[in-house]
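Hey Z.,

So I finally got round to the adenosine-5'-triphosphate thing we talked about over coffee. Here's the setup:
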Amino acid sequence: MPDQATALPLDDKVLLDVKGVGRRFGGLVALANLDVAIRPGEALGLIGPNGAGKTTFFNIIAGAIPVSSGSIHLDGEQISGLSPDRIAGKGIARTFQNIRLFDEMSVLENVLIGRHRFFRASLFGLIFRTKKAHAEENLSKEVARQVLERVGLADKMAQPARSLSYGDQRRLEIARALALEPKLLLLDEPMAGMNPTEKADLSRLIVELNRSGMTILLIEHDMKAVMGISKRVIVLHHGEIIADGSPDAVRADRTVIDAYLGRRG
Ligand SMILES: Nc1ncnc2c1ncn2[C@@H]1O[C@H](COP(=O)(O)OP(=O)(O)OP(=O)(O)O)[C@@H](O)[C@H]1O
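And the result:
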């Protein structure tokens, strides 16, 4: 059951308002009428057994797939129905389950390319090197340097992305998302494939980002990591929310335990 004490809003404002969102794939109901309100500054974990609908939920928020029903608002503005680029431009950045980097490009270029896609000056500006395009480029470089500093990759800025360790590649993905200066950061299984040391390091980084004010929605199968990072956890099962509360409340919830043990149909 929801733990009202810890699930209380940090303030009354809602950053992301998901109302009655459903998604079908043919006859399969992947998401059934979900209501989720995310408040500024939250670190919210999204868990659930395989096939529960977590990735579908992320894809819907990011605009990669459309809703079948319901609506999503960011800061009061409707974003459901917009393209992924428009949604990213409005302040939702994401990382992917599978690392998506440009291997031969430098660490800095990988961050810049993410930013350019959304904050590009007009084609005219780029060709004729207008003042505006120049200023935008300088700002992008400055932001890219700052986010690389923040994730601990500043000293590897000039290296090709392929030369980074697996853990650092995951950090680079996060840096690229942060370079969009998002209001909401969606992290899709960031610990996948990591060793325990890399997981601990990344957990620390995510907690630091949240402490500095970043609102985070995290899908993660590693229970220790997700429970350590999140202040609130939502559990999905067969496309429905079966629990929403503090990590402790969710861990002790009978319905959740049964769902993970396969006892709930
Ligand atoms: N494009 C699609 N076409 C048809 N069915 C889909 C599609 N995408 C997802 N599904 C189905 O929707 C349900 C939810 O899948 P989803 O990938 O969102 O679950 P998940 O919780 O992210 O699972 P996992 O933890 O394994 O990544 C599953 O039954 C899946 O087979």
